[in-house]
Every structure is written in C-alpha cells, then in structure tokens.
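Subject: complex prediction, re-run

Hi both,

The earlier run crashed halfway through, so I resubmitted it with identical inputs.
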Amino acid sequence: MKLWGGRMSKETDELLQRLNASLPFDIRLYREDIRGSQAWARALAQAGVLSQPEAQALVEGLAQVLQEFEAGDFQPAPGDEDIHTAVERRLTELIGPVAGKLHTGRSRNDQVATDFRLWVMRACDDLQGDVQDLAQALLERAEEHLEAPMPGYTHLQRAQPITWGHWMLSHFWPLLRDRGRLRQARTAAGVLPLGSGALAGTSYPIDRQALARELGFDSVSSNSIDAVSDRDFALQFLFACALLGVHLSRLAEQMILFSSAEFGFVELDDAYSTGSSLMPQKKNPDPLELARGKVGRLVGHLSGLLTTLKGLPSAYDKDLQEDKEPLFDAYDTLRALLPVLAGLLRTLQVHPGRMAAALDPAMLATDLADYLVGKGIPFRQAHELVGRAVRLAEARGAGIHELELPALREISAAFDEDVARVFDVEAALARRGAEGGTAPEAVRRQLQAARRALAG
Amino acid sequence: MKLWGGRMSKETDELLQRLNASLPFDIRLYREDIRGSQAWARALAQAGVLSQPEAQALVEGLAQVLQEFEAGDFQPAPGDEDIHTAVERRLTELIGPVAGKLHTGRSRNDQVATDFRLWVMRACDDLQGDVQDLAQALLERAEEHLEAPMPGYTHLQRAQPITWGHWMLSHFWPLLRDRGRLRQARTAAGVLPLGSGALAGTSYPIDRQALARELGFDSVSSNSIDAVSDRDFALQFLFACALLGVHLSRLAEQMILFSSAEFGFVELDDAYSTGSSLMPQKKNPDPLELARGKVGRLVGHLSGLLTTLKGLPSAYDKDLQEDKEPLFDAYDTLRALLPVLAGLLRTLQVHPGRMAAALDPAMLATDLADYLVGKGIPFRQAHELVGRAVRLAEARGAGIHELELPALREISAAFDEDVARVFDVEAALARRGAEGGTAPEAVRRQLQAARRALAG
Amino acid sequence: MKLWGGRMSKETDELLQRLNASLPFDIRLYREDIRGSQAWARALAQAGVLSQPEAQALVEGLAQVLQEFEAGDFQPAPGDEDIHTAVERRLTELIGPVAGKLHTGRSRNDQVATDFRLWVMRACDDLQGDVQDLAQALLERAEEHLEAPMPGYTHLQRAQPITWGHWMLSHFWPLLRDRGRLRQARTAAGVLPLGSGALAGTSYPIDRQALARELGFDSVSSNSIDAVSDRDFALQFLFACALLGVHLSRLAEQMILFSSAEFGFVELDDAYSTGSSLMPQKKNPDPLELARGKVGRLVGHLSGLLTTLKGLPSAYDKDLQEDKEPLFDAYDTLRALLPVLAGLLRTLQVHPGRMAAALDPAMLATDLADYLVGKGIPFRQAHELVGRAVRLAEARGAGIHELELPALREISAAFDEDVARVFDVEAALARRGAEGGTAPEAVRRQLQAARRALAG
Amino acid sequence: MKLWGGRMSKETDELLQRLNASLPFDIRLYREDIRGSQAWARALAQAGVLSQPEAQALVEGLAQVLQEFEAGDFQPAPGDEDIHTAVERRLTELIGPVAGKLHTGRSRNDQVATDFRLWVMRACDDLQGDVQDLAQALLERAEEHLEAPMPGYTHLQRAQPITWGHWMLSHFWPLLRDRGRLRQARTAAGVLPLGSGALAGTSYPIDRQALARELGFDSVSSNSIDAVSDRDFALQFLFACALLGVHLSRLAEQMILFSSAEFGFVELDDAYSTGSSLMPQKKNPDPLELARGKVGRLVGHLSGLLTTLKGLPSAYDKDLQEDKEPLFDAYDTLRALLPVLAGLLRTLQVHPGRMAAALDPAMLATDLADYLVGKGIPFRQAHELVGRAVRLAEARGAGIHELELPALREISAAFDEDVARVFDVEAALARRGAEGGTAPEAVRRQLQAARRALAG
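This time it finished cleanly. Structure:
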C-alpha cells in the first residue's frame, strides 16, 4: 500500500522503491507512530471531524497493531514504504475503510517529526540513566582510594603528585556536563509539530495544546513551515552524543595507558579483557579501545547530518529522511558502550603501590620554587633557579632531592636546612587545598559535591 | 623572554619556536589576559602572598600594558611565545623584578583557560546582538507583506499557498533557538578555572569564589585536572555557530532561488549585489552565496576540534593550543556575515505580484480532498479521487479548477456545484487557523508571539 | 567458540561480548575470509608446515562452509565473535581437529586486513560499473538535444547561452574523475598483508609473493607492523565515495531546480517520482533529493574514520574494528543510488521549448561588450559602457536588445547599425568554439572525446 | 577599482565589500595570477585579438607589478576586491588604458581556477620535499639501531619482540604512500581551465593547448562549465594533507608514549623540548603534541570544503571563494610541522638498553605455541595449552620461562627439555624472516627497498 498514487500513471520503479523505503530503519518508531496516531484520532474527534465511534475504532485498531509489534507478530507488506504506511495499511486490514479517516488534516511531514521527537525524548532519558550509572561507578572507585597519591601528568610527562580520587573525579565532571547537554537536547525535542500539516498548518480546528499535553510535549511549534523542517533537536542530540563520546575516549585512552605493562597502575578484570587468536599471553583492553574508536562514528554522524541540512531550501525535502539513522546508531553505540565501561570500572584492580612508586621527587620542583618564594624570591626567578638545580641533578644522575645543601646554595643562597621538608609528598598534596585542588581534604569536599550533583 | 628555560641546556630550535608560538593568534586575548592577571594579583595579596604595594604595582603596570595594546603601541618581542609571555615580559620592562611575582601559584594552563573562557563569554554576547538584529529584520519584513499569498514549497514543488509573513517567520524561529544555544555556550564558559595551577590546584590559599565574582564568572571549577583540560565550552560555542550557519545557509538558499529570474519573488538592492568582471548584465547575490558557503568552515571547525580532543590522555596537552583559531574564525565569520544579511533583508524588494502569479490552482488539491471529506468520504479515498482528477486535468492540459462538474462527477458522485468554492486562495489560507498555521489571523498572532520572544 | 581463552580465569562479560562482536557486520566478508583461508592452507603446505592431505582437508572443508553461506544455510553460533571465528568454528565441526591447524603462523590482524582489502577491491569494481552506466546515461541524454540552446547560470543568475548537451556533459567529466579515484583506491587496496602475523611477521617460511598472485593482489606489504595497521586504502575508498557523492548532489540539485514549476526545463517520469500522503497533486523528485541528502553520510563516514585513526599508537588496536561499517554503508548507499539516477536520466522528459523561452537577450551583454572590443574599445571600458546600457534598459522596462541606436550612441559612439547582429543566440553560441566551449561544433567534438574516454 | 559596476545604481554596502573581499587571503596567489595573465596576453596576441605591442606592454607591465610584489612594495588600494582586481588596477596605473584589454575573453571564473591550480601544483611539490626529508630522517634513524630488539605492542600491550629499525620503518611506508597521494593531487590540479570564460567558453580563437604548455599544465579542461566549477583537485589536496596528518599523529602519539618516564625508550633533545611556566622540572614534547593535535584542523578543512561543495547548483557560485583558505592553512600547517619533526627525529636519543629491558619473556608465548606445533599439536590446541601455562605462571608470580618442565608437562606431555630454547629473543626475531617480517635480515632487505623507493 502506498499513501499516494492516484496522480501517477505508472508504477514506481522498483529500485527507486527500495532506495526510497525507510521502513527498514524507521520501523523502530512504531511505538511513537502509533501513540501519535491515537492522539491524533482523539484530537480529530474533539474537533468534530470524526465521530466518537470512529475515533474509538481507530484508537482500538491502533492498539491492536501495537500489540502485534510488541509480540513480534507484525508482518511488513511489500509496499510499506515507511512506518506510517505500514501502520495505516495494517490498520485498514484490521478495521476497514474507517482507517482511511485517520490521516485527515495530517501529513507525513508533521507525523514523522512528531514520532522522531518522541523517540529523541525517550532516547535522552535512556542515555541519562546510563551516564548516571557510569558517573556513579566513577564516584565509587574514586572513594575507594580517595587519597592514594599518584603522579599527575601533563604532556604525558610526570608533573605533580595528585591523588587517585582526584583523578577519577576529573572524569566524573565531564559526564555531569554531558547530562546537562542531554537535558538540553530533550528540551529541544519537546516541541510538538503535529498539526502543522505538510507545511501550511492543518485545515481542521485541532487543539494543539491539548495534543501536546497528551503526548508529553512541553510546548507546541510556533510556525508550521519551521515545524516540519526543524531538525535542531536531532543535531543537539548528536552533538551531546559526540561530546560524550569524546569524554569516553579520553577516559579510555588514559585507562589504556595505565593498564600497560609500563605504567601498571591498574589491571582490567578478566571478564573485561579479551585475548589474541595468535598470542596466548595477551590480555587486551578491547572495551577501552572501542570506547576510544567509536567516537569516530559519533563525530561522523554529527558532521554528516550538518552536511545534509546545509542549504536545504524549503519546508520539507526528502533529504530530511536521512536524519534518523545517525541518531539510531549513536544511541545504540552509547547504550552498548556505557554499561560495559561501568562494569569495567567496577571490577578494575587498582595498584596504589605501583602509583606511589612512580612518584618522582622531581615532581616537587614547583614546591621547591614555592619554597624559594617563601624566602622572598620572586617566583619567576625561583623557577629559573630550580630549573638549574634540576639540570644539575640530571647531570649528576641523581634525584633533585639528593642534591646536598652546598650544591643548592651555590645556585641560591636562599636554600637552607629546611629545604628537605619540601620533598614530602603528603605535605605537597595537602598544600593544594583551595577549591578543586588535590589536597585530600579538598578532594573529600569534592566527592561530597559530586554526590550531591549526581543526585540533583 | 621565555617563562621557562633554566632546565634546558640548549636553545629551542628556531623552527620549533615558530611552530610553537601562539602569539600570532592569541594576541587577541590581551584584554582577557590582563584583566585576569590583575584579578590574580589582587587575589595573591588577599591571600597574603603579595604585599599590597606589590599587588598595586602589578595592577597598575598591567593597566599600562593594556593601554599600550589599546593604543596600538604594543611591540611584541622575538621571544614572546604567547600572550601570557608577552604581557609578563612587557610588565617586567615596565615595573622591574616585582613582575616576577605575578605568576606565583598560577600556571599558563589555568591562565589560558581563564582568558579563553572570558573571550567566549564576550563572543557569545556579541553574536547575540547580531542574531537579535537579524531576527528583528526578519520580523520587520514579515510584517510588511504579512498576508501576501505565495506558494509554499515542499521538495521544491509547489505544495500549498502560504503567506509571505508566514514564510519569513519560518526563518525567525530558528534564530531564536540559536540565541538559546549561544546562551548555553556562555553558561558553559562561565566556570572559573583560575586557581587550578598546572593540574593539581594552586598551593596558595586563594579565595576562588571571590576571583570568580570579580571576573564575572558564574561559578568555579570543581576539579583542577578537569579545569585545565575541559574544552566543552569551546565545542558548545562551535556547535552553536555551526547550527546558526546551517540556518543562514537555508535562508540564503531560498533567497537565492527566489531572486532568480525564474522565481522573481524578490530582488536584491544594488548595494547588496555584485557584478561580473566579464558579463556586464550580471547582478549576483554574492552575500547569500557566501552565507551558504561559509557554513562549510563552521562545520569543519567543529569536527576539527572534536577530532583534536579525541583520545587526549591527560590534564593538559599541547594539543589544546589548537582550540582557539577555529573559534576566532567562527566568530569573525559570523560577525561579518550577520549584519550584511540584516542589511540585505532590510533593503530587499519584494514582489507580491510575482508570488501571487505563481499560485497554481493545483496547490488546492488538498482542499479539494478536504471538500470530499466534508461530504463523508474517508480522506485516504478522497486523496485517491483527487489524484485522478489532477491526472485528468493534466492530460487535458487544463487546470484542475477548470474541470467541469460532469467530469468530476465521473470520478466521484460526491462532487457538487459548491466545489467551485474550493478554489479560493483566501479561503484556503483562512482554513489553516490552528496555532502555527498560515491563516492570516494565525500569522498575526505568531508575529506578536515572535515579538515577545525576541524581547524576552 | 573463541579463538582464545586459555589465559583467562573468567568468562567474558556478556555485554562486552555483544559490544565486541563484529560478526553482525563482518559476516559479509565470508567469501573473502574463506578464499583467504584456502590460500593460506595451500601456502602452509607449500612451506612444509602442513601435509598435503591436511591442506586438502582444510581447503575442501572451507569450500563446504562457503557453500553453506552461499545457500543461506550457515548458522552462526552464540560464541562466534567475528567472521574468522565463525568460519573456523564451523570448519572444526565439519572436519574435526585438523581445522585447528589452519591458524598456524597467522593472526586475525593480518587475516582481517586481507579480507577487507579483497572486499574493497571488489567494491571498487562494482562501483566502477555503476558509475560507468550513469556516465553512459549522461552521454545518451547529452546527445539527444546536443545543440538545444538553454540558459547557462552562474550564481543561479542567467549568465550566457549554452547548449543542453554541453550542460549534460559538464556532469559527465566529474564522474570520469571519480572513476580514476576508484581505481586509485583499488590500487591502494591491492597490497597483500597476509603473512604479517600479529605485527612481527609470520614465523613460517611462507612465499608471500605466491600468496599475492593467488589472491589477486598486485604486491605484498613491505613492513609487517604497517601491514596490520595501514587503513589508507579504506580512507581512499571513502574519499572517492564522498567526492562521488558531492558530484551526485550537484547534479541532483540542478535537476531539482530544473524540474520545479518555475524552471520547467525537465520533467521526471512518473516511475521516478513520488507523491504526497496529504497533497494529491504532488509529484516529488525524491530520488534526486536522496542523492543530495545522502552525501551527508558519505562525508560523515570519511571524517568519522579519519577521527578514529587519529593518534592510534601501535600496530593493531581494537579501534581498527571500526573501519568496516562506514565502507559497507558507503558502498550500499552508492549502489542503491547510482542505478536509480541512471534510470531517472534515461526516462527524463526534456523541454527544449521551455529552455529556449528562458533565453533572455541580456545574456548577450558580454557579446555586446565584445562587439565594442571589435570596434577597438578596451574590454574594461566596453564592459562599463554595456553595464550602463543594461541599466538604461532596465530603467525603461525594456530588453537591452530593444534600445534604439540613438540611445546606445549616447552611451558610446562606437555603436553602429550592425549592433543588431549581436542579439543572435545561434551566433553567440558558435563564437565559443575553443576547446571545451559551448559552440555546437565544439560540443560535438567534446561528445566524441567523452565517448572515447568512457571506453578507455 | 572594481571590475564591474556600470550596471549598478548604487555603491556596494561597505560591510558587504569587506565580507566579499578575498584579497586578504588570495593575495598570496600574486605570482600565479601574474604569470597566468602574461600567458593570456600572449595568447590574445597570437589569436589576433591584441597587437604585438599591446601584448608586450601588458607582459612588461605585469612584470613590473610582480617586481613590486616580490620587493614588498605593492600597495593594495581600498577597492581591490581580490588579487585579480588588485593586479589589473595597478597595471592600469602603470601602463594606462591598454591594461583594460587584458581581460578580453576571460572571466575571473576561469582566471581564479587557473591561479589556484598553479598554486596547488607548486604546493604539492613543496610538500613532497618536506615529506621526502622526513622519510629520509626515519631511514637514517632506522639504520642506526636497525637490529636493536624492543617490544612490539598491539592494543598497547606487549605483544612480540621486534627491532627498532623495523618499527621506525613502519612509519616510513605511510609517508611513501602520502607522496603518492600528493602526486595524484598534483595530477588532478594539472588541467588548464583558462579559456573557459565565465562558463560558456571564450569567444576568441585561443589556442588552449599552447597556453597549457606555456603554464606547465598537463592537459586542458574538456568542458568549460565543469572547468570553472571543478574543485576535485582542491579536495584531493586536502585529503592527501589530512591523511598525511593522520600518519604524523600516529608517529607522534607513539613518540610521546616512548618518551614518557614509564617507557623511557627515547628522549627528545633539549632543542626540541619545551618547558613549563610553573613546573621547573618539566621537559615537554610539544612538537609531537602539536603534530597530533593539528590533524584536527586538517580533517576539519576537508570536511568543511566537502560541505561547502555539497549541492552547489551551477557552474560558478560565490561559495567557491571558500575553497582557498583551507588549503592555504593545510599547507602552512604541514610546512611548519614536517621540518620540525625531521629535526626532532635526527636529534632524538634512543635508549636500546631501556627497550631491551622491557622485553618480557611472556612475549614469546606465541613461539612456545609454535614449539608445540612443531611437536605435532594443532595450533589452536597449542594456543590453549600455552594460555594455561601463562595463567599458571601468573598465579605463581613467576615468568613463563621460569616454569619447570614438570609443571609444563602437566599441561602437555609434548613439552620437553628443548623448550628452554624457545626463550631466546634473537632466535625469535630471526624466525620472522618472511618478506616484511622483523628478522634482522628481513629488516635489512626492507631498508634497502625503502631506500630505493625513496629515490624513485
């Protein structure tokens, strides 16, 4: 069944039919499509376009179609070009000609936009749940070794000591921002287009505000042309997914590094590792590599849909049919990935001993400069002096903490006996107590703030 | 002057110096850098790290540097690798060794993040103004011919009559959503990173909340590692720009079509047209084509920065230096484009006569189907019957409105004398009176809503 | 069955198994995988690693597995993580433990690279056929109205007269370049990685050159680490597809314009048009809009895979598993699209009358300037003078050809009686006779060159 | 000076002038523009359109303009919209009205395409040189420690022993493929568009083949419409740059890892390292991080220009003006980056001792399985048995080579006294002697092949 055809003198070319058909992917909108149609039938009745018994027949027939989908019994027919056609065709089989009244005053243009927005709203909710759980896993594992010292890196070079908890939490906050972006995407989706017709608005006195309320939309679209052509919400969803993907890729990269033999800070549980078909000893961090690699498709989907939308001229163009697959794939990708990462984190073995062993005294060079600042030397000069001390130590093949006082005093007379106290990691950590710093006490406060934020 | 070097035994390679240098582009952050440094000097004094006279000297010296920049007198020196170095170098020249105290407890990592966020906040405000003005221009021109009928297109085929005002407003609402996204980007930027040090937090008791208030940030960052590595705000800004660019490209595309000889609905003012070096008769819509074409760079910047950020391992990596140029270019692009588009719209000649002449009676085929629905025929069947009528008319080389009643009645007995009334464009427009529809009355309400929204 | 596991103490997490599994998409490599394995079995025998009967058993068993795939009888088992595992598992069921000898000296890293390259080589050949046929269709339709005059557009403004054949051929040459890029992609793919092991090379004395010949590769890889990590060929394929997609989008855009009511130069056959569920009169160019819209996904796949590959550290990383789906989708997209476009072109109605009617005398303004050049006036000045004439005509609401001689002579005394001859479209076309120009005679030569090139 | 204007009744809006102006970036085409114009002047003379003295005057005047550019004396004037206008304006100042004859039969559409193609041809040559030198540096450093054993990684886990030379060369071959793509881009650019006019061809009898020869093009364009609208060459250039960028990012990533304290395989020379403004001990691999990060902009430029070109309707649209900046930036980026990387490699300290120390006996597990294969056990079973041995060793906290024979024989009776011989790295390396393998002898052959290829 096609929803058009009276006007044409020929059958549609078969290859075109296949190219054109969206049922293979938009079939997953069946719930949204049926729910939207039921609401439309009721709205038509309320507007006096259908009688109550007609509306009743439509609503019940649609419920039966839904049941068939849910039970896995729905059989697509050869001519079903999309989910809308498939549902109306089946409805006609079930309840006869009155099914032909359902599409009164409606177009597939406003119908599909409605279905898709309902789907995006639900998808945002689903992803929120997964993001929430991964964030929770980070909190849990942060707490466990909250104050365990480890090297902090910049440029992948050892920089300054931090704590494990502080580092874990540095991956928590980006997820919280992702949650915010998913909310923004949901809000963008929550505007009802139904009642916009093909582009000019419906010619029946539909109460669109009531429709919006029934379907769970926050508001109704203000302009029928814009309503059938706006895909901002889809792009916001893809952007939120792409940025979430970037964050996962960064977490993954660091975990891959930390689980290498050379770092050895963490070890993946066997249940979250995979092996090699050739090398019997291998234990590979596949899930982390997939987390890192899959950001490619998320970024690709975003730039792909932006490209598709570029320069589209009018209200509805068939190009817009390209809007769904990237979102479906982004959703599936993240829903498959997020729970695995949460599981991986929860079962991860952490090796505080290896981390502590990697703390190099040179990482306290900044504290040594601060020591000189405390003696009244301007920081810029102190930095230069300590740089020389580092070079001297390196030349001697010694640690900077092993330079004896006379050697230091040759560099600056400000060095004194008390310099030894600088090389105490605990004290160095404790000094960074300002909000957001790595001092254990500050990290404890941060953890509490994170917990509150996650609950909020 | 370099802010480091004591540790190295050799001069930096000259080509590397050039590759590494960011001054050529980050020089435009001078205002933000100086403002941030002044606030930092005061915060150091408040924390007891600097004396009041020292802080005073720094603040005043920085004011002098700012003045040099504003006056165009600032002279970069060969070794200035970035704006931070340039400012501190000049400050040292002006006020001597005390300048070396400014960088106490701070890193370029938190400093540049602060500068850049301040810049993004301002950039959002600037773009808001331009978007606002373009939206205003759309309102003005919508109002002028608010109820003038014109063809509405889907698939670039004539679909149903709409009004000029309705069409203009269909480009207004996307801009309003862009305004919302710019606000979200600004909010994302409004989190203070200063006081995060290189990654571990500052080792001095800085009151970061006070710093945030002084610099106009909404809040302070919660984790120092995240603070120096988070570029979500930059991506949100680029995303807002890219989507705004998509909207401009769609408006532009349609204006280009409408100003072609074939459509002829509008004509660009000579001040907004350009000519050809070869063809003397040409009058080209260059600004519209640039609006359409420049979305490419906006999309490219977004996917470029996402790619750069993918898989970055640790707190701060030099890769992050790549974050600024795409934003600067996106900002410059839109600031150059938006006012030109506003001017183009305000001077545009609109030809209601040409639009009315393009109204083809076949565009009322839906209304004809609705007529049959009114006679009790289910819409799906009515659609089929009218499709046949369209085909019949086409075969006869006539308009559908020219089919005589007997011919129509052969298609369906439900056609009656009153069918002639269907072919009244005014009436067809008026029927689409539901919220967001093209009925003149609905469009007037829409205009008022748009005006309120713009003011809000 | 997993190809590893002895080393692990636990079952792989079920969600990870699902995330990790590539069988759902790499199953389409079954032909390549089996063919590659048969060649590998023979190579192992030749190297003395397997006995001839063992190799025979493997080759025949694999042939049986292939048969099951071809017949649609192959049943994946729950543990099959990828096509390699699935094939080896089934082979084991069919021929017993000797199947365990197949993977000697081989890794999935070199195996999958081999399969994928074989697939890309075939994909290039398939797409070549489709591109060839579309190019052929353009030639056919170019020839039909080869010399029919029509307006040429720049900036979508009428510029100069051209012929239909010239315009059609302007879409032919890009396809010919696409053919070249597909060839380059095929050449890039034609380098055998098999025999590279996991990354270090195989530890058996395999004759890789013989392997390459048997499998149809042009050469063998030079470095085993590069061999398992190189995906340049995949990107070249995606790039060729994306650029082909851009060309199709440009052809489509122009056809959409030309089939609008306002242009009316062409009309799509009913078999290549679609209708509206709401508006009975609509005849929409859906296939063209899909051709335009689908370039989004092609561009997205390219930038996605580039992103995935960015910064990958070592020989083989699991991220590389992300390489296949974008190519499969690009291939499917183009193979569905190209034949439809060829069919659409072959059935297209062309309206030379409508095109001729759109020839506006102002399009000969350049020829008028050339006329003045013929009278000795420098072109730049001639251009200026004709520009004034155009403005004068416009002010009078007349065509430029309708200005009488006295009026022209007021602009320049160089105008003379013979100026009327300028406004002859045929003559104007004929003047553009240099290679590649729009003169009918040049277009005929171009057609012949195109025909030769297509055959080449 | 504008090259048009007679037709307009008003001055161009000032903001539009600024938006429209391409001189700020296309000024770098001055050499190509002048060279192209000189050739055009000669061609006009040859076609009898100009007298020899006129052509002479033009050619010499243009030479003078060129000289001014080269000397840095050229002064842009306010109205110069692009390089073509600027040159013609200055030429007019220098030689008077005869300058107005230069643009006869030419359009900026074919002129700019010619300039841009000439630039791309030169840019390809320049980049070839840099790529060649970087490849050379890789060869040099490969040779130096050609046979030094080091761990090969897959999934960033230690996999199998390889040699330093083999690893270095794994980064050589991608560059060689990049060289091939730059050649393809150059070939794509080498097609002369000049003589195509605005879109319809020139109306003068120009010998385009002679023009092509004079300007160094390989061939002439076949279709004038395609000639002014084809930007395939620009995309091929950007694609070649993006993929080269991906290769550099991969090399960089691995060098960053290897120069971390944890790996410690290499150390950057001080001249190629940078420091921290805060942390005096830091020595950061900035150039490598920039190499990794800058691929973002290269990928962004490619997807940006693809987006710009998508769906462009006709011969020349102003959107095409967006084609240059991404190429200029890609070129500048790579020309700044490549020599720094070559210098970095040439001064890199390599630590074979650290690499040898990282060779873990478990990396020979595959060889242990091969040992069992040698005893007649099918590889799949051998893999499983060795997996168990690895697990056993791990449980005991021992190396796999430390398991005594009885323990091994409990796993498989096939283990025998000779098993100890497996754990010899030299022998393991030597076994991988097939083409492309890591055996020292194979690597020596590879080095020679690489040297020949580089010279070729």
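Chain B has three domains: 5-104, 109-154+162-204+215-357, 361-423.

- K.
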